[in-house]
Amino acid sequence: MDSTVATERALDAAEELFYRNGIQAVGMDDIRAVSGVSLKRLYQLFPAKERLVEAYLERRDAHWRERLAEHVERHRDPERRVVAVFDRLGEWFAEPGFNGCAWINSYGELGAASEPVARQVRSHKAAFKDYVAKLVARAGLPVQLGEQVFLLAEGAMVSAAITRSTAPATHAANATRLLIAAHRR
Amino acid sequence: MDSTVATERALDAAEELFYRNGIQAVGMDDIRAVSGVSLKRLYQLFPAKERLVEAYLERRDAHWRERLAEHVERHRDPERRVVAVFDRLGEWFAEPGFNGCAWINSYGELGAASEPVARQVRSHKAAFKDYVAKLVARAGLPVQLGEQVFLLAEGAMVSAAITRSTAPATHAANATRLLIAAHRR
DNA sequence: CGAGGGGGAGAACGAGCGTTCTCCTCCTCG
DNA sequence: CGAGGAGGAGAACGCTCGTTCTCCCCCTCG
After folding, report:
1. Which domains does chain B have, with CATH numbers?
2. What is residue A184's predicted lDDT score, i.e. its pLDDT?
3. Transmembrane stretches, by residue range (chains A, B) (predicted)?
4. Helices A143-163 and A167-184: angle between axes, nearest 10 degrees
5. Which of A1-10, B94-103, B126-135 is least confident?
6. Could you give the count of Cα atoms lying within 13 Å of B165 in the half-sphere of its Cβ?
7. Is the pLDDT reported for residue B58 higher than 90?
8. What is the percent of chain A where pLDDT is above 90?
């Protein structure tokens, strides 16, 4: 098996298992079993579990933001794009196997114990917030709204995970529409 | 040492250690060392670590909501009370040792592995949401606003933890004021 | 005073797991 | 064909940790 392929399979397994069960609950041997990549190879590709965790979060970050952007950019109207963030969140919440925000979960689990993980989380959240801020700016709306929409999004993710419901996406979208109107006048 | 006192000391140690370091990172022996309660006694009081975790979350829930209520009820104006939720959050975020929402963290760490913990988290969040809803209703504002304020609060907690900043409380409070005004007209 | 038992200190046990090592297979290249 | 090395299977190692056990002290009560 090619080294690139092995890396990909390892990351696929890591994503599936870490996201569903949490990081500490998954052993390297579980990764081996699901990916079919031997332990020896795994440790060649990722010298420690922590590195695999970092790589998992990093790859997931790229994918997650890509899919968000795809969804948002289907809309032309810059104001509509801001609200479209919550369309994407609602869709995500409804996916089978949705289990909350991988970064928030990882932070709760390892933020205190692993600085590299904490860094990944901060970097992902900063990137997401920047993206929202950009959407808000393009719509000619004030910076403040960016912060507010970001907080609504974070709240929706957490709440959707804990209550196993998609409703928070709708509530957050409603709030966003009201806030936009309020800022417009 | 009286059995009531031992329970209290065990819970004090649990709260300090679990909240700061995460639950899985803390061993029963650490609880023993900090509380001064012997392992034998610990296991008499809490037949398994999971029970201690449940008790920790339960006691913290009572305290947390008490302190929120105290803060909110200093204000007479029912509308002001809604915003006062974020005054309390801001104060909390600034406390030394603030490390995010204990329930969100626990859910990220153990929600997938422990049904009792997941239940505690859901119950705490439901209680907090109900409290916000009650404040909103007393101010003669529509139910929808309750959901929105709740999401802002959750988002603020998560964001304050990850960025180690108190600013989210201010942003959420601003959003809430705008939403109240929007709902009033 | 002596038996009994509750409680403490800490060793012990058993499982899980991150990481490494051993041994074997098989492919490659001279 | 033969040497060498990469890679796989899985055992082994060492550590952590939840939980239990042993041994001892000391207080209580007859």
Report:
1. 1-47 (1.10.10), 57-184 (1.10.357.10)
2. 86
3. none
4. 170
5. A1-10
6. 10
7. yes
8. 96
B91 exposed, middle or buried (CB, 10 Å; 0-12, 13-18, 19+)?
middle
The A residues from 146 to 185 touching B (CB cutoff 8 Å) are 147-148, 150-156, 158-159, 161-163, 167-168, 171-172, 174-175, 178-179, 181-183
Would you list the DSSP string of A12-36?
HHHHHHHHHH-STT--HHHHHHHH-
pLDDT tens by residue, A64-119: 999 999 999 999 999 999 999 999 999 999 999 999 999 999 999 999 999 999 99
Which nucleotide's C1' sits nearest to the alpha carbon of B41? C7
Which residue bears the tokens 């975020």? Answer: B93
Average pLDDT taken over every residue of chain A = 96
pLDDT band at A45 (very low <50, low <70, confident <90, very high): very high
Integer Cα distance of B38 and A174 in angstroms: 53
Q: Report how far residue A180's alpha carbon sits from residue B134's, in angstroms, rounded to the nearest whole number.
A: 26
- Residues B68-77, mean pLDDT to the nearest whole number: 97
Around Cβ B179, how many Cβ atoms within 10 Å? 23
What pLDDT is attached to residue B3? Answer: 84
Residues of chain B found within 8 Å of residue A168, distances taken between Cβ atoms: 147, 151
Contact list in B for residue A100 (CB cut-off 8 A) is: 107-108, 111
Which phi and psi angles does A48 have, rounded to 5°? -155, 160
Chain A residue numbers with beta carbons less than 8 Å from the beta carbon of B136 are none
Nearest to A100 by CA among A172, A169, A158, A24: A158
Rounded Cα gap, residues A28 and A83, in angstroms: 40
Strand D, nucleotides < 7 Å from a protein CB: these are 7-11, 16-22
For the four alpha carbons of A35, A28, A109 and A52, in that order, the dihedral sign comes to negative
Q: How far apart are CA B120 and CA B61, in angstroms?
A: 9
